[in-house]
Amino acid sequence: MDKSFIASEDTHFWEKVSGTPAANVFISIFNAIQEGIEIVDRAGWVQYINPAFTAITGLKEGDRIGKNIFEVVPHGPLVKVLKTGTPIFGEKMEMKDAGIDIIANTAPIYVNKVMVGAVVVFQDVTEIKKLNAQVRESKGKIRVLHHKLSKVATAEYDFDDIVGHSFPVRQSLEIAKRAAVTESTVLLTGESGTGKELFAHSIHNVSARSNSPFIKVNCAAIPENLLESEFFGYEKGAFTGAARQKVGRFELAHGGTIFLDEIGDMPLPLQAILLRVLEQGEVVRVGGTESIYVDVRVIASTNRNLKMLVEEGKFREDLFYRVNVINVEIPPLRQRQDDIIPLADHILKQTNRKLGKNVEGFTEQALKSLSQYNWPGNVREMRNCIERAVIMAETTLLPEKVLLSSLSGEPDSGLEGEEPVALDVMEKELIRRALNRFGKTVAGKKKAARALNISLRSLYNKINKYEAP
Description:
Layout: H1 13-17, H2 21-32, E1 36-41, E2 46-49, H3 51-57, H4 61-64, H5 69-72, H6 77-84, E3 88-95, E4 100-111, E5 114-124, H7 126-152, H8 167-180, E6 186-189, H9 196-206, E7 214-218, H10 224-232, E8 233-234, E9 246-247, H11 249-252, E10 257-261, H12 268-280, E11 282-283, E12 292-293, E13 297-302, H13 306-311, H14 317-323, E14 326-329, H15 337-355, E15 361-362, H16 364-372, H17 378-392, E16 397-398, H18 400-406, H19 423-438, H20 442-452, H21 456-466
Parallel strand pairs: 6-13, 6-14, 7-10, 10-13, 15-16
Antiparallel strand pairs: 1-2, 1-5, 3-4, 4-5, 8-9, 11-12
């Protein structure tokens, strides 16, 4: 060790001051400080460490007192200061013998303008580094989750995507556009497949919340025992299997819109909770006690007659008035005869792009069949019908034969020239046909529900309603 820079007349300074009243006062002060302190003399011999030094590093007095810093930590800040006489502030370093990371402030000690040693004061930043790493990891996860959320929580359509110029459609569009620029709750009513979700997307995209989340919840597709946790989330340990906290759909929709599809199928107990959320603007996670504020605009839809459900005691009257602030009734396709051919052409173009096909149009007879068919499944049925026909087509024009093979029934449906058939009678007949075709097993009913473009739960409800075999 090179000691040529050490002044010999200062080597006994620490022996002279040790035990003096002044030194004892300073030692008491150093002992009370929470930062680690280490003092060395001019030659680098460790004279003092405070209790915080031991607490932070785990090193005892015997590990440091009487040891030379030039040998213990040859590249540390105390050595640098002893060599240069210049203070060093905010130096980050690793104490290898203690296995920790510290930030150190180091300064020379002068007495009568002569440097007699040096002192280092440091803080342990090992936990801070770990926390910073966790924060960076969390930020990365948040960015990924935000990216995923933006994909599933974005409204895809606007009013330009709604094809139709018939009076019933123009009337529905006018009401929907007026509702969109308000904060009022909107109830979309209409038969299955009429395009209620398309209207919901469009209303959100025109609203002031268009840049915020659009969260969809299908009330008929989620099992009843899971609805509350899906809506409002749950705390860790709230029930068996709740291994971690889950954020509910209402929290995800904060600042944006939540679309409650098939709200008529919501169980009564959950209706009461939903009503409280809509009125108070707060949710409580399952298993939690803390109220969480949510700012959410609600759009609901149903293919059922909510007034009738209210009369039957199956839907809360107060909730009905809460969601039915603005009602947009979307007409079935059979009431939009003027829109059938333009809509079929529009769907054909979309299907060509989707499947990479080049079907140019329909034969005259096929167009006649499209116009005469009753479309019990409405626009959704037409879309499925045309897609199947395009897949099976071998010509540039879709013929009637291929089109009819894709329909769920026959043209006219027995309506032309006869008395109109009640909707519930037709619906019951379609359910009967679907069950006969796919079978009455659970798997068969799932296929039947897909073919009818309704949820499995809705199918069961309708089977019970009509007592279908």
